[in-house]
Amino acid sequence: MTRRTLLTQNGHSKTEEGIQAGCNPPGKVALKKKVTLLRGISIIIGTIIGAGIFISPKGILKNSGSVGMSLVVWVACGVLSLFGALSYAELGTSIKKSGGHYTYILEAFGPQVAFVQLWADIIAIRPAGVAVISLAFARYILEPIFMPCGVPELAIKLTTAIGITTVMYINSMSVSWTARLQIFLTFSKLLAIGIIIVPGLYQLFKGETKNFQNAFQVDTVQLTNLPLAFYSGMYAYAGWFYLNFVTEEVDNPERNVPLAICISMAIVTVCYTLTNVAYYAVMSAADLLASHAVAVTFAERLMGNFSMAVPIFVALSCFGSMNGCLFAISRMFYVASREGQLPEILSMIHVRRHTPIAAVMVLYPITILILFLGDIYSLLNFMSFLRWLFIGVAVVGLIYMRYTRPDMPRPFKVPIFIPAVFSFTSFFMVFLSLYSDPVNTGIGFAISLTGIPAYYILIVFNKRPKWLQRLSDSMNRSLQIILEVVPAEK
């Protein structure tokens, strides 16, 4: 793609001089290293722990066949996710660029494969993902208001739109405030989990162990369904990779990226396992399978009226996932723009706030459109398995670069069996999707493969007529003035 910087930081454009004079930006205009170890941990934990652990952990129980086996699956999925996270820790410390999957695929396999991943993300995966977690936020923030009646769908969608707008506004205004909010929301969801774990374990120590009798009853375990239990578990842990999307903003990444990943995965695995132990101390397997919101049922049995607070905690947990997810994925669009695969405006920084405001806002129109006009859940079903495909490809890229780029500095290096086991797990989940839902998976593949002709049309054969280039330059200049952004300084 031919890229033209219309307003450069050191140029003499009158338009830029107007921006500079009006804003007086302090210091260098670039993304700052404001992600400390604590903020890194909060990004990972805050995006992993969403609504799932509070609402419906029954997918694992249903497919594992017994209480004991379900707990084994929770721990095993935590270990497998740690393998993936450690692989990303090596990638993040050896390739010190933001962008996550996109950057690692670009480095290992080149721009075409990276563009296909980017295309699938921007047209479907990310907008649908943000819309779904935002809908969960709206539903649970409104539930106490409308209880005992159901929440009107229009109210849910309007509140969802307000939630998405709020998160995008905060991310556009300040990196520091975004990170502080993420820390607060992470502590809120850990507090909510603690409110479940402590009374649950107290019941267990009092002798309420009847639900753990015959916990590993073999005749109820169906080996054919066990892979589906792991599939559910790996989705519950998804989110460990988001810190790698903001590597360039991490303070001392060689130390803080691996440390944040290891600490976060240990905390999440322990929390998930103990939360399920607490559930089983109060509820039988049949009760858990019959419940639509496990944490609410748990709270009603132990805490009476306090159960009204559970939907609020679930909503805060969803809001934390929204905030962390948007903070991370905006950096992928920022890096893709810098590489020439998205419009140049997306790699520009606000002159005062030092945020990639255009990259933050790029998902807003399509997310709102999908929210009100689209079938979000179908789209998510079409595309969600592709996330594991691209993560698997990125981790295979780690193995590939061990041989093609042996001299690359690797401050943090994992044994080769760790990325090998994890990439096998990722591809197995993709195969499982093809086996269990071939129609939706096939549609998802078809949508993603449209990225191949898009790559050649938009990137390779991008010879615009002069009038179209002038129009593009004019729009870019206008957006720079409106958004008050300039190219980042090196």
Tell me the radius of gyration.
23 Å
Label the overall shape: globular
Return the average pLDDT rounded to an integer.
84
Q: pLDDT below 50 for ≥5 consecutive residues: which ranges?
A: 1-26
Taken as a percent bin, the fraction of beta residues is under 5%
User: Which sequence of SSEs, written as H and E, runs from N to C?
Assistant: HHHHHHHHHHHHHHEHHHHHHHE
Read across the widest sheet, the strand sequence of neighbours is 1-2
The biggest beta sheet, please? 2 strands, antiparallel
User: How far apart are the termini?
Assistant: 21 Å
Structural class: mainly alpha
Q: Helical segment tally?
A: 21
Query: What portion of residues is helical?
Result: over 70%
Please tally the β strands and state the result.
2
Could you describe the 3D structure shown?
- This protein has helices at 14-23, 37-48, 52-55, 58-64, 67-94, 101-109, 111-146, 153-173, 175-205, 226-237, 253-282, 285-290, 294-303, 310-338, 357-361, 364-373, 376-404, 417-436, 438-449, 451-460, 466-483; strands at residues 348-350, 485-487.
- By secondary structure, the chain is mainly alpha-helical.
- The two termini are 21 Å apart.
- Mean pLDDT is 84; it is low at 1-26.
List keywords for this structure.
490 residues, mainly alpha, two-stranded antiparallel ribbon, disordered N terminus
In short:
The chain is mainly α and 490 residues long. It contains 21 helices and two strands.
Give the SSE layout.
Blueprint: H1 14-23, H2 37-48, H3 52-55, H4 58-64, H5 67-94, H6 101-109, H7 111-146, H8 153-173, H9 175-205, H10 226-237, H11 253-282, H12 285-290, H13 294-303, H14 310-338, E1 348-350, H15 357-361, H16 364-373, H17 376-404, H18 417-436, H19 438-449, H20 451-460, H21 466-483, E2 485-487
Antiparallel strand pairs: 1-2
Helix pairs in contact: 2-9, 2-11, 2-14, 4-5, 4-10, 5-10, 5-11, 5-18, 6-7, 6-17, 7-8, 7-14, 7-16, 7-17, 7-20, 8-14, 8-16, 9-11, 9-14, 17-18, 17-19, 18-19
